[in-house]
Amino acid sequence: MSLFTIGDLHLSLGVPSKPMNVFSGWENHMELLEQNWRELISPEDTVVLPGDTSWGMTLPEALADFQFIQDLPGQKILLKGNHDYWWNSMKKMEEFLEANGLDTLHILHNNHYPYGKYGICGSRGWVNIGNEQEQSAKVLAREVQRLEVSICSAEQAGLEPVVFLHYPPMFGSNCNYDILDVLYRHHITRCYYGHIHGYSHRYAITGERDGIDFHMVSSDYLGFRPEFIF
């Protein structure tokens, strides 16, 4: 039994107008993802998908992408990304998954999932810059609260939190201090994030910073190969 992660699958089976193969490095990405996934992941494993999973605008539009993920081995835990427009209330998402037999997909939203002595925690996060704008500040405050709630729920269960975000808490020379403050206060030692693509990969922060081991796990950065955690 192992834990893996890979972000930003950007599946578009239900939205043909959003093909990713028009971008360099994304040619045949679904085939490559499936090949690597089946090579690495067993039914006993768990894979965390930190955002931008499907281009579907609604839950029904995302169904074909969910079914693709359902058919892959392992349990999957999904976070919200900035392009997950299908995202809805926890109740509606869970009802939709159950109604469509998607029993290997689980939503991470104001909660945690136990994994051995660890708690899988996280939220979408928010952008690193421009937070002085009123609307942006409100969104950031909500994401900070959701992250705090998720981490606290794991701690209350006696588990060590491992954090997954969609947006990077650090990028280049920019830092999202509100998100980082939560990580520091809770003594988080592992943080996985996505969102970054293409040329911007070179500015991604990876490795240890101030006691936190940061990992960038966008699917194109990983070569569409899920990253082993433990």
Number of strands: 13
If you average the pLDDT, what whole number results?
A: 94
Radius of gyration (CA) equals 17 Å
Report strand order across the widest sheet.
Answer: 5-6-7-10-12-11
CATH topology: Purple Acid Phosphatase, chain A, domain 2
Share of helix, binned: 25-40%
CATH superfamily: Metallo-dependent phosphatases
The number of helices is 5
Query: What letter string, H or E per element, gives the SSE order?
Result: EHEHEHEEEHEEEHEEEE
The CATH architecture category equals 4-Layer Sandwich
GO molecular function: hydrolase activity
Domain Calcineurin-like phosphoesterase: 5-199
Keywords: Hydrolase
Structure write-up:
This protein is 29% helix and 21% strand. By secondary structure, the chain is an alpha/beta fold. It has one domain (3-228): Metallo-dependent phosphatases (Purple Acid Phosphatase, chain A, domain 2, 4-Layer Sandwich). The strands form three sheets. Strands 5-6-7-10-12-11 form a six-stranded mixed sheet, with helices on one face. The longest helix is centred in the middle third of the chain and has 23 residues, at 134-156. The protein is globular. Residues 5-199 form the Calcineurin-like phosphoesterase domain. GO terms for molecular function: hydrolase activity. Keywords: Hydrolase.
